Amino acid sequence: MKKSVFLACTLTAVFIFIKIPAYGNIAISIEEVGDNLVVSYSGTLNTTEFSAFTAGNSSSQMLSSSGFLRFTGGGDYNLTVNNPWETAPAEFGSSDSIITADSVSGDNFSVSSSWISYGTSYTSGSIMSGTMTFLNERLSSFGISSDFLTTGTLISGDTVTVQAIPEPASALLMSMTVGVCLFIRRTTLRA
User: What are the pLDDT digits (tens) for 69-105?
Assistant: First the structure.
């Protein structure tokens, strides 16, 4: 009993006095919803490692051939960090056209293969999220494959993951097809 209390107190002291780096993760999904393409993100960033900012603001856009996404729903200016990547995420499509979102909500956040940016009011480690919608657009409009997945690692240790999610009806059809094939195989093996 005394050993476990001593161990608990020691571990508590270690966690209080030793700085353990906090890593965050931003998850970005590019999803077909009906006839529209909805791009959402959420997560946290450790911004204490970043310096050399530039400030600016622009509209919410996507350019898939350069791995560029910009959410500007928060109203404040963006702080941009150039060359923040230890390993940059892969470009996620083949479209060379910048397409502006029809609607956007949430916090400012942008990502590309050469920089990231976030709102000036963002506090390191806090949760941020946003969504932008492209009306009458599909994954194919941006040259994005339905099974696309990439992860980049920032110099802070944080990760940014971008994943394409096909229309739920397509995923349902695919899972039903696999289920039918497994059922046929099972009944064939029993016979």
Answer: 888 776 666 788 888 999 988 888 888 888 889 999 9
Under DSSP, the state recorded for 65 is: G
**DSSP structural state of residue 83:** S
User: Could you give the CA distance from residue 46 to residue 156 in angstroms, rounded to a whole number?
Assistant: 6
The answer to whether 124 and 48 are in contact (CB under 8 A) is yes
* 89 contacts: CB under 8 Å, gap ≥ 6: 67, 111, 113, 150, 151, 152, 160, 161, 162
pLDDT (0 to 100) of residue 173: 45
Distances (CA, A) of 54 to 51, 120, 137: 9, 11, 32
Alpha-carbon distance of 168 to 115, in angstroms, equals 32
**How is 122-173 classified by DSSP, letter by letter?**
PPTT-EEEEEEEETT--GGGGT--TT-EEEEEETTS-EEEEEEE--HHHHHH
pLDDT tens for residues 40-61?
A: 999 999 988 887 566 666 677 7
Q: Which amino acid is at 179?
A: G
Tens of pLDDT, residues 129-154: 999 999 999 999 889 998 999 999 99
Q: Return the structure tokens found at 123.
A: 């506090």
Q: What is the 3-state secondary structure (H, E, C) of 99-132?
A: EECCEEEECCEEECCCEEEEECCCCCCCEEEEEE
- Residues 135, 34: Cα–Cα separation, whole Å: 10
